[in-house]
Specification:
The protein is rod-shaped, with a radius of gyration of 38 Å. It is 36% helix and 26% strand. The strands form 2 sheets. Strands 3-4-5-9-8-7-6 form a 7-stranded antiparallel sheet. With 211 residues, it is an alpha+beta fold. The longest helix has 41 residues, at 17-57. A hairpin with a 2-residue loop joins strand 6 and strand 7. The protein is built from 4 helices and 9 strands.
Length: 211
């Protein structure tokens, strides 16, 4: 015996086959939508957990500074066979040597602060044969000395350069050491240049005594 079709209260009569199919399709869509929304919530929760781990679980702190070049080892290698002695100062605390190498006939060391500060810039040490005065001219931007200054017993020519004159160099020092000229220059301050000059003082005096 065939079953009597169920009367739908909203319709006041049994559903037609098309209405039954439409109702089931709508129910299926609603179920899939609820599952999709639930999955989105789960994914969002996982993402928030990962972000929290990154923020709170990873040790914080500043990255270590770039390691300083071994100036003494580089100087020893560079001067081998040249019959010259290159300055290899200890790097002052809070600074590092980024470069220590030969550039043409000059020994060059570039000092920068451990922590970047655009106001400090860098100090470039150039030690070159004194018989070619172009080394000083090129290094300090073609400027003449503006005075002299004594730093730890070593007398230096001073170049206090105005930044408005369109040069990278803002301050420089130069002195003769035997057959070489030593220049400290760069976009730097008198205090920072003096710090590097003080680190060179013992080696400069030793070379001067040897000559």
């Amino acid at each position: 015996m065939a079953s009597t079709p169920r009367v739908v209260a909203e319709l006041g009569r049994p559903e037609t086959p098309d209405e039954t199919a439409a109702r089931k399709a709508a129910s299926s869509r609603a179920y899939r939508s609820s599952q999709t929304f639930r999955n989105l919530l789960v994914a969002l929760g996982v993402t928030l957990v990962v972000v929290a781990i990154v923020i709170f679980g990873v040790p914080r702190g500043s990255l270590p500074g770039q390691e300083s070049v071994d100036v003494a080892a580089a100087a020893e290698a560079a001067q081998a066979g040249l019959g010259r002695t290159f300055l290899a100062p200890e790097v002052p605390e809070g600074w590092r040597a980024n470069t220590a190498r030969m550039e043409r006939a000059a020994w060059v060391v570039v000092f920068t602060p451990d922590v970047f500060d655009s106001d400090q810039g860098f100090v470039r040490l150039t030690q070159a044969p004194a018989d070619d005065e172009r080394w000083v001219t090129e290094t300090v931007g073609g400027f003449a000395p503006t005075g002299t200054v004594a730093i730890d017993g070593v007398v230096w020519d001073e170049y206090d350069v105005a930044t408005s004159r369109g040069t990278e160099v803002t301050y420089g020092l130069s002195t003769r050491v035997g057959g070489d000229i030593v220049v400290l220059a760069g976009p730097t301050t008198a205090d920072d240049a003096a710090l590097i000059a003080a680190a060179l003082a013992d080696d400069i005096r030793a070379l001067q005594r040897g000559n």
